[in-house]
Amino acid sequence: MCYNLALFMSEQEQDAIAGKIVTEYVRVRRELASLLDKTAEYSKILDDVSAHLKPRAGTTHHQNLSAESLTEKLQKYPTKDELSEVAKEIEAASRRKRELSQSLKDIGIEPKE
Questions:
Q1: 0.85 exceeded by the pTM?
Q2: Please, which of 9, 77, 98, 105 could form a disulfide with 13 given CB 3.0 to 4.6 Å?
Q3: What is the number of domains present in the chain?
Q4: 29, 97 Cβ separation under 8 angstroms
């Protein structure tokens, strides 16, 4: 049997719960945005390396890229374990955001996506 708990709560208690959900939703959105920014940085590193390794248009010559410069760029790239961890964090944050979004909709608040 499912009871509507709102029937047993004051309006003030309901507002407090709604406030907590909104606060958590905003925090999770920011966390997810930060993680996605991190993946964009990783992508840029690979794009930079790729651009230097491709031949220039219309030639077979590669851009000058010293082994030192390439090593420096690639040292900024995360390890396989770090990438895996970021992917797990993105999955968890995305899942939590969906849950909180549904909770907000359930109490009549349309969340910003």
A1: no
A2: 9
A3: 1
A4: yes
